[in-house]
Amino acid sequence: MVQQRETLLEVKNLHSGFTIDGDFYNAVQDVSFDIKEKEVVCVVGESGCGKSVMSLSLMQLLPKENAKIASGEVLLNGMDIVPKSQAEMNKIRGKDMAMIFQEPMTALNPVLTIGFQLNEVLYNHTGIKKREATQKSVELLKQVGISRPESIMDEYPHQLSGGMRQRIMIAMAIAMEPKLLIADEPTTALDVTIQAQILELLKDIQERKNMSILLITHDLGVVAELADRVVVMYAGEVIEQSDVDSLFYDPKHPYTEALLSSIPRLEEKVETLNTIGGVVPSLKNMPEVGCRFADRCPKASDHCTEITPKLADVGGGHYAKCLLYEECYPTESEGVRR
Ligand SMILES: Nc1ncnc2c1ncn2[C@@H]1O[C@H](COP(=O)(O)OP(=O)(O)OP(=O)(O)O)[C@@H](O)[C@H]1O
């Protein structure tokens, strides 16, 4: 019998975005998905599709000056964290959910030693004393595959390679054993062999610690390697969602098909990469009605700019948002507008 996993994170109708020239624009539009315990969910999509804004919204780390969550719920173990204050979020971040970023140098403080920064995470969440914190930090560095942890404790971020810095970030993220790790393009800034090592480390830690991971990436090779389920985003919206095999072998949305066909295959002699023509619309230029991919879609019909599809189950828990499928037509009461 397949054991039902509990839902760890549930995102419901999330809208978030930016105020630009006095007007508010959603960069994340009505996004809903969930993550079960011990599950790896990958979020994919081209640059500018809202992946980072979505993940920063979950952590409540959007820039305060011009960005906010406009509506929606983010349920962590059933509790909505959207209304939480920053002080409350400071307790939740690190302990219940943690995040690693593309460029660890921006997240690490350049003038503090690695040991100081690691110990700080432990002090923030526990009443631990210095000697014990230092022991724990050294242990964490070992867990992330750092071979001379005692001496690294006294070094500064700039003395380390990009791969080492990302390992430090992972050590900081797992220090309090959070159940959810959000990783936003964690390997993009690294060279290829190091990328593979960091992904291997994430996978290993996820299994050892029984964590769930939300992995943001535009690299479908990474998705194939790590994901249990995949959420495809386009222009701020979820346009497809399914388990990883179903997505790779039977993609439903023309955007996902296009993304998949842009991966070069070893057996094919590729002269040029098959890229998707056109660009993701900017926030100010989002179509108000219809499918946001319509102007780039090879399968678009007139309907596609007139009727807004809804995300619907098009078979066996595979969700798509495309008028190629009967299920995605809005009902009369849902209308054609967003
Ligand atoms: N600080 C900001 N102010 C205004 N608009 C922003 C800001 N940051 C992002 N955006 C816009 O929000 C939209 C979503 O951007 P986001 O960074 O989430 O995309 P992404 O899918 O994560 O792309 P990438 O892979 O390049 O990080 C884009 O249209 C982007 O231009």
From TrEMBL:
Origin, by domain of life?
A: Bacteria
Quote the NCBIfam families the UniProt record gives. oligo_HPY
Provide GO CC annotations from the record. plasma membrane
Some GO term, biological process aspect, for this entry: which one?
Answer: peptide transport
Keyword match Transport: yes
Family, per entry: Belongs to the ABC transporter superfamily.
InterPro entries attached here?
AAA+_ATPase, ABC_Ni/Peptide_Import, ABC_transporter-like_ATP-bd, ABC_transporter-like_CS, Oligopep_ABC_C, P-loop_NTPase
**Name of protein:** Peptide ABC transporter ATP-binding protein
Q: Which GO terms describe its molecular function?
A: ATP binding; ATP hydrolysis activity
Q: Which Pfam families match?
A: ABC_tran, oligo_HPY
User: What is the membrane topology noted in the UniProt record heading this document?
Assistant: Peripheral membrane protein
Q: Which UniProt keywords apply?
A: ATP-binding, Cell membrane, Membrane, Nucleotide-binding, Transport
Q: Which compartment or compartments is the protein found in?
A: Cell membrane
Q: Which PROSITE patterns does this one have?
A: ABC_TRANSPORTER_1 (PS00211), ABC_TRANSPORTER_2 (PS50893)
Q: Which residues form the ABC transporter domain?
A: 9-260
Keyword check for Oxidoreductase, yes or no: no
